[in-house]
Design a protein that fits this description.
Largest sheet: 8 strands, parallel
Shape: elongated
CATH superfamily of the largest domain: Glycosidases
Number of domains: 2
Number of helices: 12
Number of strands: 18
GO molecular function: hydrolase activity, acting on glycosyl bonds
Family: Belongs to the glycosyl hydrolase 39 family.
Radius of gyration: 25 Å
CATH architecture of the largest domain: Alpha-Beta Barrel
Order of helices and strands: HHEEHEHEHHEHEHEHEHEHEEEEEEEHEE
Distance between the termini: 57 Å
Keywords: Glycosidase, Hydrolase
Organism: Dysgonomonas capnocytophagoides
CATH topology of the largest domain: TIM Barrel
Strand content: 15-25%
Protein name: Glycosyl hydrolases family 39 N-terminal catalytic domain-containing protein
Length: about 450
C-alpha cells in the first residue's frame, strides 16, 4: 500500500512539473503535440465582409470585368506612364468606378522623381508650383471620384531626397490647394505612403497635420514584412494598435481609417498564404483596405506593368496559386461565418452559402512546424440541411505555392462521405504544411 502511495505521489509530481513547464513557456497541449482545432457554430449569423483585396498599377481593361467579378478588389492604386493623357485616365478610372472599385491616384507618379534626371524637372522642395499645377489639373479633372495619395514613399531616397520636414511642408501645400478648389472640402486625401511602418515618422507626420490644420482622411503606410506565422501576425496586430493609439491623440486631424496601399513583400509575392493571413488580420483590425505591391519577376520584368495583375497571372494569362487565394477569399465575403481557432497554430476564414448548401473553410498553418494536424469542431450541424440528405460530402483541396508556375485549379487531396455526427468532431486526414493554402468544402 505504501509503495502504491509513493508511486501515485510520484505521478502527481510529474504531472505538476509538466503543467508548470507548459504554463511557464506559454505552451498548451495543442502546441506540444502540434494539433490545432477550428471551431464553427452554424447557429451564428452569416454576414457580408468588406473586401481587403486591392491592386497596384497593372491594368488590362479587357480583363477588368472578370477581375472585378472573380476577385472583388475594393481599391486600386494607380499612377505612372501607362495613363499619360486625360482621356486614358478617365477611361481607366471610369472602368474602376463602374465596377465598385475606388481608385487611389498617386499624385507624384506622373510628376516623376529626382533620381530620373529628367531635363527641366523641378524639385518641389525648392519650388512647389510646378507640382501644385499638376495637382490642380488632376483634381479639376477627377474631382472627388478618387482618393489623392500625395507622394509615394517620401522616406525612401528613390522617391524623396530631401528632409522629412520639407515633405511635410509640401504635403500641407497640396492639402491646402485641394481643399481650396471646388468641393475640395469633401475630397479624400491620404498619406504619407511611407515605405514601411515607422511609428516615429507617422507620429511626427500626424502631429504636423494637427499643428498645421491639415485634415487627413486616411492614414497610410506600406507593409512588406513577411507574414507567415503567429509571431508575425501578433507583431502586425501590435503595430496597428500602436498606430491607432497615436491617431487617438490627435482627433482634430480627422483620420477616418487606415489604408495599406502596398502589402506583401517580394519574397512572398506569389504565396497563396500571405494574402489570406494579411486580409484576416486587416479585417480583425478594422482596416479600410489594402493593395498588393508588385515586384520584378525572375526575368527582371516588373509585375506592375506586364498585365500579370501584380503577379497573379503568368505573362500568357494563366492563373497562379496566388490568384486562387484571392479568388477564394473573394468568394467568402458575401457569406462569411465566424470561426475560431484554439491557439495560434492556424488561421481560418469560414463562409456558409445557404443557397448552395455549402460550408467552406480556408486554412493556413501558422505554426513553426511544417506539418500540422487539424481538427474540426462544428456545432449545430443540423442547421446545414444539405437538401435533406442523410450524409454529407467532405472535400479537402490544397493550393500549393507554385511560385511563378501556373496552377489551373486547386489540387483535390481527398473526398469522404460522412454522417452528420461524424463531421461534428472530425480529424482531417492530412497534415497541413506551412506554404500551402487549404480549402475545405462540406456539401
Amino acid at each position: 500500500m505504501k509503495k502504491l502511495l509513493v508511486t501515485h505521489k510520484y505521478k502527481i509530481s510529474v504531472l505538476l512539473v509538466l503543467a508548470m513547464f507548459f504554463l511557464y513557456n506559454g505552451l498548451t497541449y495543442s502546441n506540444v503535440f502540434n494539433t490545432g482545432t477550428v471551431y464553427i457554430d452554424l447557429n451564428n449569423n452569416t454576414y457580408t465582409q468588406r473586401s481587403m483585396s486591392g491592386f497596384l498599377h497593372t491594368f488590362n481593361n479587357d480583363k477588368l470585368e472578370d477581375i472585378s467579378n472573380d476577385l472583388e478588389p475594393a481599391y486600386w492604386r494607380i499612377g505612372g506612364d501607362w495613363i499619360k493623357t486625360t482621356e486614358e485616365r478617365n477611361k481607366v478610372i471610369d472602368s474602376f468606378i463602374s465596377r465598385g472599385i475606388k481608385p487611389i491616384l498617386i499624385l507624384s507618379s506622373p510628376y516623376k522623381y529626382k533620381r530620373m534626371n529628367i531635363k527641366g524637372w523641378v524639385d518641389p522642395s525648392d519650388n512647389a508650383q510646378p507640382f501644385l499645377d499638376l495637382v490642380k489639373k488632376l483634381y479639376l479633372e477627377q474631382g472627388n471620384r478618387v482618393i489623392y495619395d500625395v507622394w509615394n514613399e517620401p522616406d525612401h531616397r528613390n522617391y524623396w531626397q530631401e528632409s522629412d520636414t520639407s515633405f511635410f511642408i509640401l504635403f500641407k501645400k497640396v492639402h491646402d490647394l485641394i481643399r481650396s478648389l471646388p468641393n475640395g472640402q469633401s475630397a479624400s486625401i491620404t498619406g504619407p505612403s511611407i515605405a514601411g511602418l515607422n511609428k516615429d515618422y507617422l507620429s511626427r507626420f500626424i502631429k504636423f497635420c494637427n499643428d498645421n490644420n491639415i485634415r487627413l482622411d486616411y492614414l497610410n503606410w506600406h507593409y512588406m514584412a513577411a507574414i507567415n506565422n503567429s509571431a508575425s501576425l501578433d507583431n502586425l496586430n501590435r503595430e496597428i494598435a500602436s498606430v491607432k493609439k497615436i491617431i487617438s491623440q490627435y482627433p482634430n486631424v480627422g483620420i477616418k481609417s487606415i489604408i495599406l496601399p502596398e502589402i506583401i513583400g517580394e519574397a512572398q509575392q506569389y504565396s497563396p498564404t500571405a494574402p489570406i493571413l494579411f486580409f484576416k488580420t486587416l479585417e480583425e483590425n478594422d482596416i479600410e483596405g489594402s493593395c498588393k505591391a508588385c515586384w520584378n519577376n525572375s526575368k527582371g520584368i516588373n509585375n506592375c506593368f506586364n498585365n500579370s495583375l501584380d503577379g497573379l497571372f503568368t505573362e500568357d494569362g494563366q492563373t497562379r496559386s496566388v490568384w486562387w487565394a484571392y479568388q477564394l477569399y473573394a468568394k467568402s465575403l458575401k457569406f462569411r461565418l465566424k470561426s475560431v481557432t484554439d491557439n495560434n497554430l492556424m488561421a481560418s476564414i469560414c463562409s456558409l452559402n445557404k443557397e448552395q448548401d455549402t460550408l467552406t473553410v480556408l486554412l493556413v498553418n501558422t505554426s513553426n512546424n511544417n506539418q500540422l494536424t487539424c481538427n474540426l469542431r462544428i456545432k449545430n450541424i443540423s442547421r446545414l440541411k444539405l437538401r435533406n440528405k442523410s450524409r454529407i460530402v467532405f472535400s479537402l483541396f490544397e493550393i500549393p505555392d507554385t511560385s511563378e508556375s501556373p496552377l489551373e485549379k486547386p489540387n483535390l487531396i481527398y473526398t469522404s462521405t460522412l454522417k452528420y455526427e461524424d463531421i461534428q468532431n472530425y480529424k482531417i486526414n492530412t497534415k497541413l504544411n506551412k506554404t500551402s493554402l487549404y480549402l475545405i468544402q462540406i456539401h
